[in-house]
């Protein structure tokens, strides 16, 4: 949510980790990739905005649209923007985001809570919540955008990947190196066979209604995520290609 700020809870490890992705406007990022098993893929498109005054960043990026593709028996998709939801299942339906309604179509169901959020449920055991952020009088650095949350992942496989999907069935640990001289102790996350330097941060989620403390990984989540940022950039919103380096689980 936000300027792609990612917050990942590791239920197996009872830890919360966060990171930023400083993407490029126009890039489409693979968030969840489970095409081979559950048939579900989630991609998000980035939009750019100038950074606010006094910021150390040159620009901000946000998600301007989210596509959820389901390719199980037959292909269907939902595309969400801050203003409308396109549901392409049995029929193609366009729903405005300022209303409150629910629609079912084959494997997919969508529930819109007017101007607040969109809940997409796949097959009863996978659900995503997409927050709608709209501004009546936006400042120059504000853009209508979306937040993306995985609400129920029980239907996603252990081979699930993507910027968020790769963490669903992962365990991490925290290790601390003693202080050297005047420096503070160094804290590392142990992810697979990698050591990731982290610092303690606080993040506001769900439109600022909830505050979480998390271990923050710098530099576009270097070492925390499998591969590099560029590996998660896809060719278009409905691209369901597999993670190029094999599955997440050995």
UniProtKB/TrEMBL annotation:
Residues 38-219 form the Inter-alpha-trypsin inhibitor heavy chain C-terminal domain. It comes from the Eukaryota. InterPro entries: ITI_HC_C (IPR010600), ITIH (IPR050934). Pfam families: ITI_HC_C. This is Inter-alpha-trypsin inhibitor heavy chain H5.
